[in-house]
Protein backbone atom coordinates (compact mmCIF):
# COMPACT_ATOMS: atom_id res chain seq x y z
CA UNK A 1 0.00 0.00 0.00
CA UNK A 2 2.76 2.39 1.00
CA UNK A 3 4.56 1.40 -2.14
CA UNK A 4 1.56 2.19 -4.33
CA UNK A 5 1.02 5.57 -2.68
CA UNK A 6 4.67 6.28 -3.30
CA UNK A 7 4.31 5.51 -7.02
CA UNK A 8 1.13 7.55 -7.33
CA UNK A 9 2.74 10.49 -5.55
CA UNK A 10 5.68 10.36 -7.91
CA UNK A 11 3.44 10.23 -10.93
CA UNK A 12 1.57 13.29 -9.72
CA UNK A 13 4.80 15.13 -9.09
CA UNK A 14 6.05 14.20 -12.55
CA UNK A 15 2.86 15.49 -14.13
CA UNK A 16 3.02 18.74 -12.18
CA UNK A 17 6.64 19.20 -13.13
CA UNK A 18 5.83 18.55 -16.77
CA UNK A 19 3.03 21.12 -16.68
CA UNK A 20 5.40 23.59 -15.07
CA UNK A 21 7.97 22.97 -17.85
CA UNK A 22 5.42 23.37 -20.60
CA UNK A 23 4.09 26.61 -19.14
CA UNK A 24 7.49 28.22 -18.71
CA UNK A 25 8.89 27.43 -22.17
CA UNK A 26 9.37 30.65 -24.12
CA UNK A 27 6.86 30.95 -26.95
CA UNK A 28 7.16 33.37 -29.82
CA UNK A 29 4.11 35.62 -29.80
CA UNK A 30 4.95 37.77 -32.80
CA UNK A 31 2.70 37.16 -35.80
CA UNK A 32 4.58 39.32 -38.31
CA UNK A 33 4.41 38.14 -41.92
CA UNK A 34 7.53 37.70 -44.06
CA UNK A 35 6.21 38.23 -47.58
CA UNK A 36 9.10 39.27 -49.84
CA UNK A 37 11.78 37.95 -47.48
CA UNK A 38 14.23 35.20 -48.37
CA UNK A 39 15.29 32.75 -45.68
CA UNK A 40 17.77 29.87 -45.43
CA UNK A 41 17.38 27.27 -42.70
CA UNK A 42 20.16 24.67 -42.59
CA UNK A 43 19.33 21.18 -41.36
CA UNK A 44 15.64 21.70 -41.93
CA UNK A 45 14.50 18.25 -43.04
CA UNK A 46 13.50 17.33 -39.48
CA UNK A 47 13.36 18.48 -35.87
CA UNK A 48 13.81 22.10 -34.86
CA UNK A 49 14.97 23.14 -38.35
CA UNK A 50 11.87 21.69 -39.95
CA UNK A 51 9.52 23.42 -37.51
CA UNK A 52 11.38 26.72 -37.93
CA UNK A 53 11.21 26.52 -41.73
CA UNK A 54 7.54 25.59 -41.65
CA UNK A 55 6.65 28.52 -39.42
CA UNK A 56 8.54 30.98 -41.64
CA UNK A 57 6.85 29.49 -44.72
CA UNK A 58 3.45 30.04 -43.07
CA UNK A 59 4.42 33.71 -42.79
CA UNK A 60 4.88 33.89 -46.55
CA UNK A 61 8.68 33.92 -46.82
CA UNK A 62 10.59 32.34 -49.66
CA UNK A 63 12.21 29.49 -47.73
CA UNK A 64 15.29 27.54 -48.78
CA UNK A 65 15.79 24.24 -46.99
CA UNK A 66 19.52 23.53 -46.97
CA UNK A 67 19.89 19.86 -46.08
CA UNK A 68 22.33 17.07 -46.67
CA UNK A 69 20.02 14.35 -47.96
CA UNK A 70 18.05 14.71 -51.23
CA UNK A 71 15.37 12.30 -50.21
CA UNK A 72 14.69 13.89 -46.82
CA UNK A 73 15.09 17.42 -48.19
CA UNK A 74 12.55 16.92 -50.97
CA UNK A 75 10.15 15.21 -48.62
CA UNK A 76 10.37 18.06 -46.10
CA UNK A 77 9.78 20.59 -48.89
CA UNK A 78 6.65 18.79 -50.12
CA UNK A 79 5.34 18.49 -46.60
CA UNK A 80 5.93 22.16 -45.76
CA UNK A 81 4.29 23.25 -49.03
CA UNK A 82 1.21 21.18 -48.31
CA UNK A 83 0.96 22.22 -44.66
CA UNK A 84 1.67 25.93 -45.13
CA UNK A 85 0.07 26.43 -48.53
CA UNK A 86 3.18 28.42 -49.52
CA UNK A 87 4.55 27.18 -52.87
CA UNK A 88 7.73 29.21 -52.50
CA UNK A 89 9.65 26.58 -50.53
CA UNK A 90 12.73 24.99 -52.07
CA UNK A 91 15.31 22.39 -51.24
CA UNK A 92 19.01 22.81 -51.99
CA UNK A 93 21.63 20.24 -51.14
CA UNK A 94 24.25 21.31 -48.58
CA UNK A 95 26.79 19.18 -46.76
CA UNK A 96 28.42 21.31 -44.06
CA UNK A 97 31.13 18.69 -43.59
CA UNK A 98 32.48 19.45 -47.08
CA UNK A 99 33.96 22.84 -47.99
CA UNK A 100 33.37 22.08 -51.68
CA UNK A 101 29.70 21.55 -50.99
CA UNK A 102 29.48 24.77 -48.95
CA UNK A 103 31.20 26.74 -51.72
CA UNK A 104 28.98 25.22 -54.40
CA UNK A 105 25.86 25.97 -52.40
CA UNK A 106 26.86 29.59 -51.77
CA UNK A 107 27.94 30.24 -55.38
CA UNK A 108 24.74 28.81 -56.76
CA UNK A 109 22.69 30.73 -54.23
CA UNK A 110 24.32 34.06 -55.00
CA UNK A 111 23.92 33.43 -58.73
CA UNK A 112 20.22 32.65 -58.54
CA UNK A 113 18.85 34.70 -55.62
CA UNK A 114 19.00 38.43 -55.29
CA UNK A 115 18.58 38.73 -51.54
CA UNK A 116 18.96 36.93 -48.24
CA UNK A 117 17.13 38.40 -45.26
CA UNK A 118 17.47 35.66 -42.68
CA UNK A 119 20.15 32.98 -42.38
CA UNK A 120 19.53 30.36 -39.71
CA UNK A 121 22.57 28.19 -38.99
CA UNK A 122 20.55 25.43 -37.43
CA UNK A 123 22.21 22.20 -38.59
CA UNK A 124 24.46 20.46 -36.13
CA UNK A 125 25.62 17.08 -34.98
CA UNK A 126 25.79 15.97 -31.38
CA UNK A 127 27.88 12.87 -30.95
CA UNK A 128 30.11 11.79 -33.77
CA UNK A 129 33.10 9.53 -33.83
CA UNK A 130 36.60 10.73 -34.24
CA UNK A 131 36.42 10.61 -38.05
CA UNK A 132 37.98 13.05 -40.50
CA UNK A 133 36.23 14.72 -43.41
CA UNK A 134 37.58 15.00 -46.95
CA UNK A 135 39.11 18.29 -45.76
CA UNK A 136 41.06 16.57 -43.00
CA UNK A 137 39.05 18.14 -40.19
CA UNK A 138 37.01 16.29 -37.61
CA UNK A 139 33.39 15.75 -38.66
CA UNK A 140 31.92 17.27 -35.49
CA UNK A 141 34.02 20.42 -35.64
CA UNK A 142 33.53 20.93 -39.36
CA UNK A 143 29.77 20.36 -39.36
CA UNK A 144 29.14 22.50 -36.29
CA UNK A 145 31.76 25.20 -36.67
CA UNK A 146 34.04 25.42 -39.73
CA UNK A 147 31.30 24.63 -42.27
CA UNK A 148 28.76 27.21 -41.00
CA UNK A 149 31.62 29.67 -40.53
CA UNK A 150 32.53 29.40 -44.22
CA UNK A 151 28.87 29.46 -45.29
CA UNK A 152 28.14 32.62 -43.31
CA UNK A 153 31.27 34.29 -44.66
CA UNK A 154 30.42 33.51 -48.30
CA UNK A 155 26.82 34.68 -47.96
CA UNK A 156 27.69 37.82 -46.00
CA UNK A 157 27.85 40.23 -48.97
CA UNK A 158 24.33 39.22 -50.00
CA UNK A 159 23.08 39.43 -46.40
CA UNK A 160 24.59 42.91 -46.07
CA UNK A 161 23.03 44.16 -49.28
CA UNK A 162 19.64 42.92 -48.03
CA UNK A 163 19.89 44.80 -44.69
CA UNK A 164 18.12 45.04 -42.32
CA UNK A 165 18.83 41.32 -42.11
CA UNK A 166 19.47 38.74 -39.45
CA UNK A 167 21.86 35.87 -38.83
CA UNK A 168 20.80 33.34 -36.23
CA UNK A 169 22.96 30.57 -34.84
CA UNK A 170 21.60 27.62 -32.98
CA UNK A 171 24.11 26.74 -30.29
CA UNK A 172 23.58 24.94 -26.99
CA UNK A 173 23.96 25.59 -23.32
CA UNK A 174 26.67 22.92 -23.53
CA UNK A 175 28.90 25.74 -24.82
CA UNK A 176 29.58 26.69 -21.19
CA UNK A 177 31.69 23.54 -20.80
CA UNK A 178 33.57 24.10 -24.06
CA UNK A 179 37.32 24.64 -24.19
CA UNK A 180 39.20 26.62 -26.82
CA UNK A 181 42.78 25.48 -27.26
CA UNK A 182 44.34 27.16 -30.27
CA UNK A 183 46.98 24.47 -30.49
CA UNK A 184 44.29 21.86 -30.74
CA UNK A 185 41.33 23.64 -32.32
CA UNK A 186 40.46 20.80 -34.63
CA UNK A 187 41.23 18.29 -31.86
CA UNK A 188 44.23 17.14 -33.93
CA UNK A 189 46.04 16.08 -30.81
CA UNK A 190 43.37 13.73 -29.54
CA UNK A 191 44.03 10.06 -29.90
CA UNK A 192 41.15 7.66 -30.28
CA UNK A 193 41.41 7.06 -26.52
CA UNK A 194 41.44 10.70 -25.47
CA UNK A 195 38.86 11.91 -28.00
CA UNK A 196 35.59 12.67 -26.24
CA UNK A 197 32.48 13.00 -28.38
CA UNK A 198 30.72 15.20 -25.87
CA UNK A 199 33.76 17.44 -25.45
CA UNK A 200 33.95 17.92 -29.22
CA UNK A 201 30.30 18.99 -29.19
CA UNK A 202 30.81 21.42 -26.31
CA UNK A 203 33.86 22.96 -27.98
CA UNK A 204 32.06 23.42 -31.28
CA UNK A 205 29.10 25.06 -29.50
CA UNK A 206 31.45 27.46 -27.69
CA UNK A 207 32.85 28.31 -31.14
CA UNK A 208 29.31 29.23 -32.29
CA UNK A 209 28.87 31.56 -29.34
CA UNK A 210 32.24 33.24 -29.84
CA UNK A 211 31.64 33.61 -33.57
CA UNK A 212 28.38 35.37 -32.86
CA UNK A 213 30.20 37.76 -30.53
CA UNK A 214 32.85 38.46 -33.15
CA UNK A 215 30.50 38.60 -36.11
CA UNK A 216 28.28 41.09 -34.29
CA UNK A 217 31.33 43.29 -33.67
CA UNK A 218 32.35 43.09 -37.33
CA UNK A 219 28.83 43.87 -38.50
CA UNK A 220 28.30 46.97 -36.36
CA UNK A 221 26.54 49.67 -38.32
CA UNK A 222 25.68 47.43 -41.29
CA UNK A 223 22.06 46.77 -40.31
CA UNK A 224 22.81 43.05 -40.00
CA UNK A 225 22.28 41.49 -36.58
CA UNK A 226 23.88 38.24 -35.38
CA UNK A 227 22.50 36.35 -32.40
CA UNK A 228 22.72 32.84 -31.07
CA UNK A 229 20.41 30.71 -28.96
CA UNK A 230 19.98 27.62 -26.88
CA UNK A 231 16.82 25.83 -28.08
CA UNK A 232 16.41 23.87 -24.85
CA UNK A 233 16.42 20.11 -24.55
CA UNK A 234 14.40 18.95 -27.48
CA UNK A 235 13.31 15.55 -28.62
CA UNK A 236 14.81 15.29 -32.11
CA UNK A 237 16.89 12.82 -34.10
CA UNK A 238 20.02 14.40 -32.65
CA UNK A 239 19.27 12.37 -29.52
CA UNK A 240 20.16 9.09 -31.14
CA UNK A 241 19.90 6.51 -28.34
CA UNK A 242 22.58 4.33 -29.91
CA UNK A 243 25.11 7.10 -29.84
CA UNK A 244 24.41 8.90 -26.61
CA UNK A 245 26.94 8.45 -23.86
CA UNK A 246 24.28 7.50 -21.34
CA UNK A 247 21.69 4.80 -20.89
CA UNK A 248 19.06 4.45 -23.58
CA UNK A 249 16.42 3.91 -20.89
CA UNK A 250 16.87 7.54 -19.98
CA UNK A 251 15.40 8.78 -23.25
CA UNK A 252 11.74 7.68 -23.03
CA UNK A 253 11.71 8.96 -19.47
CA UNK A 254 13.23 12.33 -20.37
CA UNK A 255 11.00 12.65 -23.45
CA UNK A 256 8.11 13.19 -21.12
CA UNK A 257 9.63 16.45 -19.89
CA UNK A 258 11.72 17.84 -22.72
CA UNK A 259 10.51 20.06 -25.54
CA UNK A 260 8.83 18.97 -28.73
CA UNK A 261 10.57 20.21 -31.91
CA UNK A 262 7.87 22.84 -32.26
CA UNK A 263 8.57 24.17 -28.77
CA UNK A 264 12.29 23.95 -29.49
CA UNK A 265 11.92 26.14 -32.60
CA UNK A 266 10.31 29.08 -30.77
CA UNK A 267 13.47 31.05 -29.96
CA UNK A 268 14.79 30.66 -33.54
CA UNK A 269 11.46 31.94 -34.88
CA UNK A 270 11.37 34.77 -32.36
CA UNK A 271 14.84 35.94 -33.39
CA UNK A 272 13.88 35.68 -37.06
CA UNK A 273 10.69 37.70 -36.91
CA UNK A 274 10.22 39.78 -33.77
CA UNK A 275 10.58 43.57 -34.11
CA UNK A 276 11.64 43.56 -30.44
CA UNK A 277 15.06 42.29 -31.45
CA UNK A 278 15.56 44.32 -34.61
CA UNK A 279 18.43 46.27 -33.02
CA UNK A 280 19.74 43.52 -30.76
CA UNK A 281 22.99 41.89 -31.83
CA UNK A 282 25.75 39.74 -30.34
CA UNK A 283 23.42 38.24 -27.74
CA UNK A 284 22.64 34.76 -26.50
CA UNK A 285 18.99 33.76 -26.08
CA UNK A 286 16.99 30.93 -24.53
CA UNK A 287 13.21 30.71 -24.19
CA UNK A 288 12.84 33.92 -26.24
CA UNK A 289 14.86 35.94 -23.71
CA UNK A 290 18.40 37.29 -23.56
CA UNK A 291 20.58 35.23 -21.23
CA UNK A 292 23.95 36.15 -19.80
CA UNK A 293 26.94 34.40 -21.29
CA UNK A 294 29.73 32.88 -19.23
CA UNK A 295 32.97 34.84 -18.98
CA UNK A 296 34.54 32.70 -21.70
CA UNK A 297 31.50 33.17 -23.93
CA UNK A 298 31.84 36.96 -23.61
CA UNK A 299 35.59 37.04 -24.13
CA UNK A 300 35.98 39.35 -27.13
CA UNK A 301 39.72 38.78 -27.37
CA UNK A 302 39.21 35.02 -27.57
CA UNK A 303 36.43 35.56 -30.12
CA UNK A 304 38.64 37.71 -32.35
CA UNK A 305 41.45 35.19 -32.24
CA UNK A 306 39.12 32.25 -32.93
CA UNK A 307 37.82 34.06 -36.01
CA UNK A 308 41.35 34.57 -37.30
CA UNK A 309 42.43 31.00 -36.58
CA UNK A 310 39.25 29.66 -38.20
CA UNK A 311 39.93 31.77 -41.28
CA UNK A 312 43.40 30.26 -41.53
CA UNK A 313 41.98 26.76 -41.25
CA UNK A 314 39.34 27.23 -43.95
CA UNK A 315 41.84 29.01 -46.24
CA UNK A 316 44.14 25.99 -46.23
CA UNK A 317 41.45 23.66 -47.51
C1 LIG B 1 27.52 30.97 -36.56
O1 LIG B 1 28.46 30.03 -36.38
C2 LIG B 1 29.29 29.88 -37.49
C3 LIG B 1 30.19 28.75 -37.20
O2 LIG B 1 30.79 28.87 -35.97
C4 LIG B 1 30.02 31.15 -37.76
O3 LIG B 1 30.77 31.04 -38.92
C5 LIG B 1 29.07 32.22 -37.97
O4 LIG B 1 29.78 33.40 -38.10
C6 LIG B 1 28.16 32.26 -36.79
N1 LIG B 1 27.16 33.19 -37.02
C7 LIG B 1 26.71 33.86 -36.03
C8 LIG B 1 25.62 34.79 -36.29
O5 LIG B 1 27.17 33.70 -34.93
C1 LIG C 1 15.75 50.27 -33.69
O1 LIG C 1 16.50 51.37 -34.17
C2 LIG C 1 15.77 52.23 -35.02
C3 LIG C 1 16.74 53.28 -35.53
O2 LIG C 1 17.55 53.79 -34.53
C4 LIG C 1 14.60 52.82 -34.26
O3 LIG C 1 13.85 53.66 -35.10
C5 LIG C 1 13.72 51.70 -33.74
O4 LIG C 1 12.67 52.20 -32.94
C6 LIG C 1 14.54 50.70 -32.91
N1 LIG C 1 13.69 49.58 -32.57
C7 LIG C 1 13.54 49.10 -31.33
C8 LIG C 1 12.63 47.95 -31.14
O5 LIG C 1 14.15 49.55 -30.38
TrEMBL record:
Q: Where is the signal peptide?
A: 1-21
Source organism, top-level taxon: Eukaryota
The record's listing under Pfam families reads: adh_short
Q: Does the keyword Ribonucleoprotein apply?
A: no
Q: Which GO terms describe its molecular function?
A: oxidoreductase activity
Entry-linked InterPro entries: NAD(P)-bd_dom_sf, SDR_fam
The family classification in the record reads: Belongs to the short-chain dehydrogenases/reductases (SDR) family.
**What is this protein's record name?**
Short-chain dehydrogenase
Amino acid sequence: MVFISFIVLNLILALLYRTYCKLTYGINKCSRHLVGKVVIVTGSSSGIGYETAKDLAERGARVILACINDLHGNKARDQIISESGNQDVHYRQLDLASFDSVRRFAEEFIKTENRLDILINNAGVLVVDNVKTENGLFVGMQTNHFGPFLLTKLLLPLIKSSAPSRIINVTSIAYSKGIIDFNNLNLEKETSQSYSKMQAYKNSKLCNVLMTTELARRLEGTGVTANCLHPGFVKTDILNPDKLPFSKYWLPFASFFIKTPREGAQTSIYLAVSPEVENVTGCYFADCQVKTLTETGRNTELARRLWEESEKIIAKK
